[in-house]
Design brief:
By secondary structure, the protein is of the alpha/beta class. The chain has a single domain, classed as MoaB/Mog-like domain (Molybdenum Cofactor Biosythetic Enzyme, Chain A, 3-Layer(aba) Sandwich). The protein has seven helices and eight strands. Strand 7 and strand 8 form a beta hairpin. Helix 5 crosses helix 6. It is globular. This is Molybdopterin adenylyltransferase. Its EC number is 2.7.7.75. Belongs to the MoaB/Mog family.
């Protein structure tokens, strides 16, 4: 394992018209913060935003988190379905340098294990500069499942969650080196010859 840096800066964005206007309390940001704090070994610093489903605002927020705040990883929650106001993937693709289609495919594979409507998700993963941006589901339980994967009754991983590949991806694109606690999710890196 490579030597790790001191901390990881992560952008967290909850996209919700109702939560951002105070109709209900946002659950996405606390769920992301709690899961990441439990999963990542190194100290983490979070830069958070709770915003409505407005594509220009989502794009501006993602750009700010990457270009100005220096977040190596940005996770969004909400706004990934087929409804007209669900524009998080559109905004994410609009600010991307490159798409990472495997992340969206794997998120849907994990979610399909639990619900057939996961096929309606438009979640994407992209690279902007030296940052990875991933669109996650909106519900805390679904966020955890997508990041961790599917485990059998014996505790063994049946379907890998997307976070297994996140540390190595961030490292490959020039971001900080960090590791995870294997009891939450095991970060995968190829073995050195």
């Amino acid at each position: 394992m490579k030597e790790t840096n001191n901390s990881v800066r992560i952008g967290l964005v909850s996209v919700s018209d109702r939560a951002s206007s105070g109709v209900y309390v946002d659950e996405g940001l606390p769920a992301l913060r709690e899961w990441l704090a439990a999963a990542i070994v190194e100290p983490t610093e979070f830069v958070e935003a709770l915003i409505p489903d407005e594509q220009p605002l989502i794009e501006a927020t993602l750009k700010r988190l990457v270009d100005e705040e220096g977040c190596a990883l940005v996770l969004t929650t909400g706004g990934t379905g087929p409804a007209p106001r669900d524009v998080t993937p559109d905004a994410t693709l609009a600010v991307a340098d490159r798409e990472m289609p495997g992340f969206g495919e794997q998120m849907r594979q994990v979610s399909l294990y639990y619900v057939p409507t996961a096929i309606l998700s438009r979640q994407v993963g992209v690279i902007r500069g030296q940052s990875l941006i991933l669109n996650l589901p909106g519900r805390p339980k679904s966020i955890r499942e997508t990041l961790e994967g599917v485990r059998g009754e014996d505790g063994e991983v049946r379907v890998h969650g997307v976070f297994s590949a996140v540390p190595y991806c961030v490292e490959l694109i020039g971001g900080p080196v960090f590791d995870t606690r294997p009891e939450v999710v095991r970060a995968f890196r190829p073995k050195k010859k």
